[in-house]
Amino acid sequence: MKPSDRLHIVKGSITRLTTDAIVNAANNQLRAGSGVCGAIHSAAGPMLQTECMKIGWCPTGQSVITDAYNLPCKKVIHTVGPDLRPWAADKLAESPERLLASCYDTAISLAKANGLKSIAFPCISTGVYMYPKSEAARIAYDTIMHRLSTDYDGEVTVCCFTDDDLESYRQLTD
Ligand code: AR6
């Protein structure tokens, strides 16, 4: 199948997806928060937080993997997007663009290393962390397509929660 046929754009809650892995837009402490992170933790149940606490920390732009507990997927990959809120943005170790691309890259690498044939992403950093939506969509799309065209032979889904996000991806894929 062509790489572009292995990229799917859907709208809804990522907690309902039955892909092998779903990705969580996490924070460095891997604590249950609001947004997609809150939705994933409440659907998975408290054992997810217990496993996250054992891992303890994930650097910005990196990813870690856990079980999925009560979720219908097999694994959750937690990635920490760049935080562009005014008080946090100047503490980033690298450019926001590189860090955001690294979230998608490291999550796909973990999926590949764990034999996971399908992975679904939310629109990382575009909520609480304030990454501009259309710019984030372009970086996500470029990074995902690069991996689909080179070394990941599985399927990638981008799960949009808002019409704005869906529109950003439609403009890239049409
Ligand atoms: N399914 C899919 N996408 C969702 C869902 C859902 N159920 N709920 C929200 N979104 P955010 P961030 C979208 O704020 O910006 C948390 O507190 C939402 O519309 O969840 O990376 C964490 O613990 C947006 O497009 O993540 C961190 O502290 C996208 O998910 C911090 O927020 C990401 O929004 C991470 O901020």
Features:
Leucine Aminopeptidase, subunit E, domain 1; Macro_dom; alpha/beta; globular; six-stranded mixed β-sheet; Macro domain-containing protein
TL;DR of this structure?
The protein is built from six helices and six strands, in the order ββααββααβαβα. By secondary structure, the protein is an alpha/beta fold. The chain has one domain: Leucine Aminopeptidase, subunit E, domain 1 (3-Layer(aba) Sandwich).
Word description of this protein:
InterPro entries: Macro_dom, Macro_dom-like. With 174 residues, the protein is α/β, with parallel strands linked by helices. It has a single domain, classed as Leucine Aminopeptidase, subunit E, domain 1. The chain is built from six helices and six strands, in the order ββααββααβαβα. It has a six-stranded mixed β-sheet with strand order 1-6-5-2-4-3, with helices on both faces. Helix 4 (96-113) runs parallel beside helix 5 (133-150) and helix 5 (133-150) packs across helix 6 (163-173). The structure holds ligand AR6. Ligand AR6 is lined by residues 13-15, 25-27, 33-37, 39, 81, 122-129, 159, 161-162, 165.
Can you count the beta strands?
A: 6
| Terminal-residue CA separation | 18 Å
Share of residues in helices:
40-55%
Classified by CATH, the class is Alpha Beta
Gyration radius from CA atoms, angstroms:
15 Å
The main sheet orders its strands as 1-6-5-2-4-3
Q: Mean pLDDT, rounded to whole units?
A: 97
Number of domains: 1
InterPro entries: Macro_dom, Macro_dom-like
Organism: Duncaniella dubosii
Protein name: Macro domain-containing protein
Domain Macro: 1-174
